[in-house]
């Protein structure tokens, strides 16, 4: 998990389908990093390939845990298919209870298959993401 100017990358553009986790997982290095206490730190998501087929939308989750392979849902955000267009930038604030290990996950809220890609990273909310 590389760090770039206080931004923690979750890997290259990734196809997100139901139940898919981000490529990488962030290790903040301490059990309770307390990064999100102001609501200004969280998960950034930028659509690199427009999403299709998810007629009822998707829920993107910040997953976290005290040990590697985070599987506990921490914060989530529902996004409609219409909003998941090329270049859109979304943000999920993490809150002050974020644990040492974190990654992202996608859950569909539909029966049809989902296609689309995003790049994701953890970092401060400094650039006006939605």
Compose a concise summary of this entry.
Strands 1, 2, 3, 6, 9 and 11 form a 6-stranded antiparallel sheet that branches. The protein has strands at residues 3-4, 7-9, 14-15, 20-21, 26-27, 41-52, 58-65, 72-79, 89-93, 101-108, 115-124.
Topology:
Blueprint: E1 3-4, E2 7-9, E3 14-15, E4 20-21, E5 26-27, E6 41-52, E7 58-65, E8 72-79, E9 89-93, E10 101-108, E11 115-124
Antiparallel strand pairs: 1-2, 2-11, 3-11, 4-10, 5-10, 6-9, 6-11, 7-8, 7-10
Report on the structure:
This protein has one domain: Jelly Rolls, CATH 2.60.120. Helices cover 0% and strands 48% of the residues. The protein is built from no helices and 11 strands. The strands form 2 sheets. Strands 1, 2, 3, 6, 9 and 11 form a 6-stranded antiparallel β-sheet that branches. Strands 4, 5, 7, 8 and 10 form a 5-stranded antiparallel β-sheet that branches.
**Nearest-integer average pLDDT:** 82
Largest sheet: 6 strands, antiparallel
Which band does the percent of strand residues land in?
over 45%
Helix content range of the residues, please?
A: under 10%
Number of helices: 0
Q: What gap, in angstroms, lies between the N and C termini? A: 24 Å
| CATH class category name | Mainly Beta
The gyration radius over C-alpha positions equals 14 Å
The CATH topology is given as Jelly Rolls
Order of helices and strands: EEEEEEEEEEE
CATH architectural label = Sandwich
Please report the total strand number as a whole number: 11
Q: How many domain regions?
A: 1
- Global structural class: mainly beta
Shape: globular
Stretches where pLDDT is under 50 for at least 5 consecutive residues are none
């Amino acid at each position: 998990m590389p760090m770039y100017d206080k931004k923690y990358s979750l890997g290259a553009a990734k196809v997100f389908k139901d139940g898919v986790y981000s490529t990488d997982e962030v290790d903040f290095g301490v059990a309770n990093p307390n990064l999100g206490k102001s609501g200004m730190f969280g998960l950034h998501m930028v659509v690199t390939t427009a999403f299709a087929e998810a007629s009822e939308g998707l829920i993107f989750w910040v997953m976290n845990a005290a040990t590697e392979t985070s599987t506990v849902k921490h914060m989530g955000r529902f996004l409609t298919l219409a909003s998941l267009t090329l270049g859109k930038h979304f943000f999920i604030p993490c809150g002050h209870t974020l644990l040492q290990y974190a990654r992202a996950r996608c859950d569909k809220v539909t029966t049809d298959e989902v296609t689309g890609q995003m790049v994701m990273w953890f970092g401060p909310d400094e650039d006006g993401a939605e």
